[in-house]
């Protein structure tokens, strides 16, 4: 028995050593492919925002070197306009917003705001200039009012009231016994997805950034909730350069420009009518969504 035990024990030892070496190698390769942390350049200047004109020039980006996610992306978002991005799941819509906010740096090309490359300006000034309404907003365990006020610490009561009104939250708040003092978050009132997004819109209004990114919730909202969000968004869009990542085409038919993405590439752009007339990818998506909404 002992004659068998020793060689088997030795083989076990060799196996464990090989496994460990492979894991170390994997970790090392992982480190090599990890993108550098986003920081300010040594001589970064604060963004001198004029109107909020955004330009993507031949932008290429990949999370990992093995797979390109954004490919030769070029487009302009004119200051004060509303631009929507549409495309199948995984087309790169959210990634486009992430590189604009500089969660990641692009591999080649440039992204400019009012003619200034986002890599040349301070991160703080870039992120002050952009307000994001995410798909799923995190609510803190405090009152609705404080959750909104978080958009800009130091905002006056009047400014918070105005943001509540513009985000079409007044009716909802008035229906609650404790009004805007109602506690929300995990331990408070459960608010619907639509209400949550309107709280996020109010936060974004309060932030007073010239650029707004709105990431439409993928989860289905009833038509009342959707309409409330649309109304809130229209109010906000009137004062912002806005980029809307849309999943339901019915919500962006009024956009000044719609960018149609497919596998990281921009395949069509134009307004709703122009894209329908093209009878291409957008028209196909529109027909499909019309059929789906008629089916139930
Ligand atoms: P959806 O409509 O489902 O939100 P999308 O068009 O916004 O999709 P992205 O989220 O931009 O798509 O993702 C584009 C591609 O990048 C997808 O294939 C996704 O799997 C990949 N991806 C997204 N985030 C990461 C990440 N952090 N690391 C690696 N790959 C990622």
UniProtKB/TrEMBL annotation:
Domain of life: Bacteria
The protein's name in its UniProt record: ABC transporter ATP-binding protein/permease
Location of this chain's protein in the cell: Cell membrane
Stretches that traverse the bilayer: 1-15
Domain ABC transporter: from-to ranges: 54-288
Full protein: residues contained: 303 to 598 of 598
Organism: Pseudoalteromonas haloplanktis (Alteromonas haloplanktis)
Segment forming the signal sequence: none
């Amino acid at each position: 028995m002992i004659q068998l035990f020793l060689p088997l024990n030795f083989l076990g030892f060799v196996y464990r050593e090989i496994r460990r070496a492979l894991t170390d190698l994997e970790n090392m390769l992982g480190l090599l492919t990890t993108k550098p942390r986003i920081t300010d350049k040594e001589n970064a200047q604060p963004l001198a925002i004029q109107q909020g004109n955004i330009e993507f020039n031949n932008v290429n980006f990949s999370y990992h070197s093995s797979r390109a996610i954004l490919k030769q992306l070029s487009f302009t978002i004119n200051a004060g306009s509303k631009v929507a991005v549409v495309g199948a799941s995984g087309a790169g819509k959210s990634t486009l917003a992430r590189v604009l906010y500089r969660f990641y740096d692009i591999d080649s090309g440039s992204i400019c705001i009012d003619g200034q490359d986002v890599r040349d300006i301070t991160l703080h000034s870039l992120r002050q200039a952009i307000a994001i309404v995410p798909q799923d907003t995190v609510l803190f365990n405090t009152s609705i009012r404080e959750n909104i006020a978080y958009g800009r610490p130091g905002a006056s009561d009047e400014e918070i009231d105005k943001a509540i009104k513009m985000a079409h939250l007044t009716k909802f708040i008035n229906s609650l016994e404790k009004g805007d003092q109602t506690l929300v978050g995990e331990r408070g009132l459960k608010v619907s997805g639509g209400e949550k997004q309107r709280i996020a819109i109010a936060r974004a209004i309060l932030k007073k950034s010239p650029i707004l990114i709105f990431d439409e919730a993928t989860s289905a909202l009833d038509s009342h909730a959707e309409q409330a969000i649309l109304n809130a968004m229209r109010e906000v869009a009137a004062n912002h350069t806005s980029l809307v990542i849309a999943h339901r085409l019915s919500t962006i038919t009024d956009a000044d420009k719609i960018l149609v993405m497919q596998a990281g590439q921009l395949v069509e752009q134009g307004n709703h009518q122009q894209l329908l007339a093209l009878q291409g990818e957008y028209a196909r998506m529109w027909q499909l969504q019309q059929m789906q909404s008629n089916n139930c």
